[in-house]
Automatic annotation (TrEMBL):
This is EAL domain-containing protein. It comes from Paracraurococcus lichenis. Residues 23-273 form the EAL domain.
Length: 275
């Protein structure tokens, strides 16, 4: 233990110290930003693969940093997860997304990403219920997205939490399918309404016959289990056509729209639904 201690100690010499310092200052900046209201939600439409109409918008968080401009989610979400800041940030995202969606036309849904850290303890049920209650959004218009990492952490606890969410009337999607610790048995054991096919498969669709075969099989499997499928990262007309022809039910990606600020949602609905 002594020598191990020395080895570990040596690791924290200058270079490591600088890394830790940067993380610590980013963490303090995140806390400050959360209090100062620097986070914002952008929304990306999810369209019906057959009719092209928008059925939902995915909420994607952005950090409008006073000095650095918009910081993308992938640069701060991992640190928020490690530090536990994702819990208050995630609660804010739920509140904001439900409050925004309540004014959208018709039966448009909003989808919200939940991270594994939000499933610690009693899980996100209370935050979801509070956001629905405060906004007045019907539960049927909220969908939550989780990744395989949530189930890997604690499958029985996750199952109980997802069942509780579903009993509120919220629907549940499995995000980034195919990238993680995929076990096909998850699809049978967990009550998913939808599976989101990761954009890495979509981008390889036309280039690589193997990817096309995998995506075709995933969509057929999900369909036969009664689940809807959203393909992520659709950027080209040929990807759209290929996904439509193999029965993918919904499409999302830059081909339709980049994520936009909440204020642009009504105009986007008009543009896409009249196209
Ligand atoms: P994700 O949930 O898989 O979100 C999709 C990501 O793909 C988004 O990146 C989106 O902007 C991007 N994207 C959409 N269409 C296309 C396309 O056609 N091509 C390409 N190349 N990319 C596309 P973003 O917004 O940077 O988010 C990254 C990740 O950060 C998300 O991946 C999600 O895991 C996480 N995240 C974002 N917002 C939240 C949040 O509110 N809570 C939590 N827990 N995680 C979030
Ligand atoms: Ca997502
Ligand atoms: Ca995804
Ligand atoms: Ca992702």
């Amino acid at each position: 233990a002594k020598s191990e201690g020395r080895g570990v100690f040596r690791f924290f010499e200058p270079e490591m110290d600088a890394v830790m310092q940067r993380r610590l200052s980013l963490e303090m900046d995140l806390r400050r930003g959360l209090e100062a209201g620097e986070f914002e939600l952008f929304y990306q439409p999810v369209v019906d693969a057959v009719t092209g109409r928008i059925g939902a918008f995915e909420a994607l968080v952005r950090w409008r940093h006073p000095g650095r401009g918009f910081v993308p989610a992938e640069e701060f979400i991992p640190l928020c997860e490690e530090t536990g800041l994702i819990v208050p940030l995630g609660a804010w995202v739920l509140q904001r997304a439900c409050a925004d969606a309540v004014s959208w036309p018709g039966s448009l849904k909003v989808t919200v990403n939940l991270s594994p850290a939000q499933f610690a303890g009693a899980g996100p049920g209370a935050a979801v219920a509070a956001a629905l209650e405060a906004s007045g959004l019907p539960a049927s218009r909220l969908e939550v997205e989780i990744t395989e990492a949530v189930m890997v952490r604690d499958a029985p606890a996750t199952l109980a939490i997802l069942r509780a969410l579903k009993s509120l009337g919220v629907s549940v999607a499995l995000d980034d399918f195919g990238t993680g610790y995929s076990s096909l048995s998850y699809l049978r054991e967990f009550p998913f309404d939808r599976v989101k096919i990761d954009k890495s498969f979509v981008s390889d669709l036309s280039r690589d016959e193997g990817s096309a075969a995998i995506v075709t099989a995933m969509i057929a499997l999900c369909g036969s289990l009664g689940m809807a499928t959203t393909a992520e990262g659709v950027e080209t007309v040929s990807q759209m056509a290929a996904l439509g022809s193999i029965g993918c039910t919904n499409l999302q990606g830059f081909l339709f729209s980049r994520p936009v600020p909440a204020s642009e949602v009504p105009a986007l609905c008009q543009r896409l639904d009249e196209a």
